[in-house]
Amino acid sequence: SQQGEEDPQALSIQEGENATMNCSYKTSINNLQWYRQNSGRGLVHLILIRSNEREKHSGRLRVTLDTSKKSSSLLITASRAADTASYFCCSTGGTSYGKLTFGQGTILTVHP
Amino acid sequence: ETGVTQSPTHLIKTRGQQVTLRCSSQSGHNTVSWYQQALGQGPQFIFQYYREEENGRGNFPPRFSGLQFPNYSSELNVNALELDDSALYLCASSLDLREVGELFFGEGSRLTVL
């Protein structure tokens, strides 16, 4: 399993602003995923980026991947109060597709 | 909603007791993983089942055990409960062990051990 470490640990912004979260990992990966978790609820998959991709978009989400720096970033544009949640990155390598290792996540608070 | 259902949603046990948590995976998914998430922490991988066989285990003691049934639903059993077992237990299903893709998580079972 591979490890994702998110930065910052907490982020507080106003509605309409952009939110950027970063993730670092330690070893080579097949893909990297971002998940979102509302307080005390299950995780929801946001986006998956493969190791041969550098950037991916999904709605207001933009994910970048830099394999040379072993890092990824998640950008949420025009944030909304409903984006308030914890965000986790996790990477997978080899055949460990279901064995994700999560960091502590970034707690995003978007103030209306 | 992901189609993954877990039960019960909340339960309270006392130290030394045993607990069974249940998970129904999304239709067509043959792989189930279980995670433990303590308050303020990220989920920790417990183990994974693929077609009724355990396919990898995290750093958890043997008193954490599991089963997967022919319909791919799954159980997590924890014996001799300890206070530190208090956590949100998450089940996640995926389409196939060999496929790269997203995990579909249930809403979790919140266990409190007193």
Sheet of most strands of chain B: 7 strands, mixed
Beta-strand level of the residues of chain B, as a percent range? over 45%
Q: Span from first to last CA of chain A?
A: 38 Å
The SS-based structural class of chain B is: mainly beta
Mean residue pLDDT of chain B: 92
Notes on the protein architecture:
The complex is a heterodimer of chains A (112) and B (114). By secondary structure, chain A is mostly beta strands. Chain A is built from no helices and ten strands. In chain A, strand 4 (31-37) and strand 5 (43-50) form a beta hairpin. The N and C termini of chain A lie far apart (38 Å). The mean pLDDT of chain A is 89. By secondary structure, chain B is mainly beta. Chain B is built from no helices and eleven strands. Chain B has strands at 5-7, 10-13, 19-24, 31-37, 44-50, 53-57, 64-68, 74-78, 87-94, 104-105, 109-113. Chain B is globular, with a radius of gyration of 13 Å. The termini of chain B are far apart. Chain A binds chain B through residues 1, 30-31, 33, 35, 40-45, 48, 50, 88, 92, 95-105, and chain B through 2, 4, 31, 33, 40-45, 48, 55-56, 58, 88, 90, 92, 94, 97-108, 110.
